[in-house]
Specification:
Layout: E1 3-13, E2 16-27, E3 31-35, H1 42-50, E4 57-62, E5 68-71, H2 83-88, H3 92-109, H4 116-134, H5 140-150, H6 167-180, E6 185-189, H7 197-209, E7 213-217, H8 221-225, E8 230-235, E9 238-243, H9 246-281, H10 288-303
Parallel strand pairs: 3-7, 3-8, 5-6, 6-7
Antiparallel strand pairs: 1-2, 1-4, 8-9
Helix pairs in contact: 3-4, 5-6, 9-10
């Protein structure tokens, strides 16, 4: 089963911890959202998962041969070819497999009939052909058309130069290529930002049927509720997993925050009580021992804040 995983990954910008001993495992069947406050480091985490950025420490491991597709929030521009030609670039992995098949086929022609080398090459050739067949390689043109139309392009757009599409449509092209690449793992950073309702609904259905794994960032709660079954929250450099859809995560998180606030208020009351006792009796000989004991208690609380 294809996977990509983190183990104790850390990254800091200056004196600020963006990621601190973060561990995460994504595999086929993962349907997860990544959430956190603006600036928490969500995009940074996804870039490290994609292998684009390097952490300060920790390890990132991807299964050999696993295919990952990554969509950034913005900034991608396509030019120099038609939409159809650009979309076909998503199948680069298939062209590479086809070229390898052709190369081995040529070697087979020069092998001695019945030799061990012929048997070995024939087995590799068969495995590559099987991989191409199961990947949908031979139906890539119809698959590309379905994705492009699903994301709002018309068939009349297919032969237009990519240069003529606006920024939002450029990102739709990038999203289409990520989906068409038939990856094992999808990493999508705000994929719905440039989509209208119809295209969002289509993407929702695509992800529901997707057999690989995905991790996505989105502020569209309705979209998340209908696509994911677990949430990872990045907070203060730490990553915590919450099973369930996004609405369930929000309810659980709200309860946790209420508990934290209650504990904080209780702690503040305890600190105030200890400080009052120390200030009142710290210099009285009869209460000095008790005041010192409370000072130790106060120091311990403050050290753990």
């Amino acid at each position: 089963m294809a996977f990509v995983q983190f183990s104790k990954v850390s990254l800091a910008f200056g004196d600020r911890d963006i990621l601190r001993d973060v561990s995460l495992n994504l595999q086929a069947g993962t349907k997860a959202a990544l959430t956190g406050a603006n600036g928490a480091g969500k995009s940074t985490l996804i870039k490290i998962l994609a292998g684009i950025s390097e952490p300060d420490s920790g390890t990132r491991v991807a299964e050999k041969g696993a295919r990952l597709a990554y969509l950034p929030q913005s900034g991608l521009v396509h030019h120099g070819c038609t939409l159809r030609e650009e979309a076909d670039k998503a199948f680069a992995w298939g062209y590479e497999l086809q070229a390898e098949c052709d190369r081995i086929g040529t070697q087979l022609q020069s092998c001695k009939v019945g030799s061990a080398e012929e048997e070995r090459l024939a087995l590799v050739h068969s495995e590559l052909l099987s991989k191409l067949e199961s990947s949908g390689w031979y139906h890539r043109q119809s698959a590309a058309e379905q994705v492009l139309v699903g994301l709002g392009f018309s068939k009349a757009d297919f032969d237009k130069a990519t240069d003529c599409f606006s920024g939002g449509w450029q990102m739709r092209i990038a999203l289409a290529k990520a989906l068409m690449a038939n990856p094992d793992i999808l990493l999508l950073d705000e994929p719905t930002n440039y989509l209208d309702l119809e295209a969002r609904n289509w993407l929702e259905k695509f992800l529901s049927d997707f057999s690989g794994g995905f991790l996505l960032v989105s502020h569209d709660r309705y979209f998340l509720d209908h696509t994911i079954n677990e949430v990872y929250e990045l907070f203060g450099g730490s990553l915590k997993r919450y099973p369930g859809n996004f609405s369930h995560y929000e309810k659980v998180r709200a309860t946790e925050l209420e508990t934290l606030m209650a504990e904080y208020e209780k702690q503040q009351q305890e600190i105030a009580h200890l400080e009052d006792f120390i200030n009142r009796f710290g210099y009285k000989a009869t209460k000095a021992a008790q005041a010192q004991e409370r000072q130790k208690m106060l120091d311990k609380i403050l050290a753990n804040k």
